[in-house]
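Forum: Protein Structure Q&A
Topic: Joint prediction for protein chains with partners

I've read a bunch of threads here and the consensus seems to be that you should model interacting components together rather than docking separate models afterwards. I'd like to see that in practice. Below is the full input, 228 residues plus whatever partners are listed. Could one of the regulars post the assembled result?
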Amino acid sequence: SQQGEEDPQALSIQEGENATMNCSYKTSINNLQWYRQNSGRGLVHLILIRSNEREKHSGRLRVTLDTSKKSSSLLITASRAADTASYFCATDGGTSYGKLTFGQGTILTVHP
Amino acid sequence: DTEVTQTPKHLVMGMTNKKSLKCEQHMGHRAMYWYKQKAKKPPELMFVYSYEKLSINESVPSRFSPECPNSSLLNLHLHALQPEDSALYLCASSQMVAGLTYYEQYFGPGTRLTVT
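Posted by a regular:
Agreed with the consensus. Here's the joint model:
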């Protein structure tokens, strides 16, 4: 079964607006990662946050992690049409090191 | 070089065929992965190799046979597949430290497999 559940399933916004995606998971984790996938292509790593971190930034991306609530959020600020893609959270947890379990993903559409 | 390459890009095979998917990376990563992704679904882990040894097999049917000939190459041998095996097959690699700490994964563009 999938470890991570994402919400919303789909998000449609205008260029310049912010986009927030949420991810919840069920078991303890070593780290949580966010990936982007353009249609039918490989995944691109965006950001990794470890279980002892609460917030991380990378360019226009901000990720938070709340291990007490087993949840994470990805904020993309000042979105661009090129941000249109599917976004997945993935957890690396338990004793199966290296095993990433992906959430169902959020489809983000940014309209020019 | 931060690229993971996969060949072929597309593959159509019959249920009696034998084919192989290839993956290559030159980033010095010692962990390599195979994922299967169906349309509109997240990737599902199939296999993990750590230091060229199979460390995780997610109960994948034996018609999928992975092989890691060296630290840069990963193969997936396919035999007697079913139409439901049609999917995008993604390869990835990552750094790892002592088998305990894994880092972000770098994905290849995938092989689009169609089984007829």
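Chain A has a mean pLDDT of 91.
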